[in-house]
Amino acid sequence: MQYLWAGLGLLCVALAMIGVALPLLPTVPFLLLAAFFFARSSSRLHTWLLTHRTFGPLIVDWQSSGAIRPAAKKAATLSIAAVFGLSVLISVPAHVLLIQAVTLGAVMLFIWTRPNG
After folding, report:
1. Of 13, 66, 90, 99, which has the maximum CB count within 10 A?
2. CB under 8 Å to 107, separation ≥6 — which residues?
């Protein structure tokens, strides 16, 4: 079971790295999942992730208090606005834009109601 958890954690890290470049693929949820999987499989990988210079503080903030740093909130807002703007520019049908607006609005509400890290 330990190898399964570690494999899932590594897969999540890989998806998070892809998500850094692709705005439609979320980075942070995959890193949080990786931390969850590594905590159950490998203390070395878990420690590596929590002490990572870029991602570690974000994960520790979330695990300790459910907090999201203001810079991450701004980056998420810009990404969401860019994705929605692109949908408008490529003339996505109105009903799809409505679904997208409601979903993205709910995501933004969740993000901005979290405490600051």
Report:
1. 13
2. 76, 80
